Amino acid sequence: MSAQAKAQATATRPDWLEWSASHRCGVTMNDSVEGRAVAHVMERKPGVTIKYFPAIIRIDGLKKLEFDLDEISDVLGRELSPYDFQIEMSTHYGRMVLLDDKVLVFADPEDAAQYLAEGELIKPGRAG
After folding, report:
1. Beta partners for 67?
2. What's the alpha-carbon Rg for the chain, to the nearest Å?
């Protein structure tokens, strides 16, 4: 973006629109037995906010969300795999990493780099 275009965009954007990174990540779960078990476990974790809406549950966090599937499975009363988790999730924002026993969501792609194959990380300044 040219300096002139950037200046024009800055001059015309509303004051409430923030262009900096939020360092937040989150998921939207279906409001189901599984989704409520996930929310129940996550509401006890520091820095995590849960919002209930008709048919969905929003789970948001700062920098990183760590969904411990063993802990969620204990509450649920049956195994919840990373793939079951994805079925119950309608969307997410942040970089998601699936492990055998955890689902991780990172606000900043660089923080997820150790889990990603070489070349998957979005380079700074590139849209992904």
Report:
1. 103
2. 17
State whether residue 100 is helix, strand or coil: coil
Query: How far is the C-alpha of 74 from the C-alpha of 1, rounded, in Å?
Result: 50
Measured in degrees and rounded to the nearest 5, phi and psi for residue 120 equal -85, -20
Domain boundaries, the chain: 22-115
If pLDDT is split at 50, 70 and 90, which confidence band does 22 have? confident
DSSP H helices in the chain: 3-12, 33-42, 69-76, 82-88
* Whether residue 107 has pLDDT greater than 90: yes
Tell me: pLDDT of 40 over 90: yes
The CATH code belonging to domain 22-115 is 3.90.56.10
User: What are phi and psi for residue 49, nearest 5 degrees?
Assistant: -115, 140
Place of tokens 């026993």: 101
State the pLDDT at residue 116: 76
Distant-in-sequence contacts of 75-79, Cβ < 8 A, 24+ apart: 75/37, 75/40, 75/41, 76/33, 76/34, 76/37
- How far apart (Å, rounded) are the C-alpha atoms in residues 40 and 60? 13
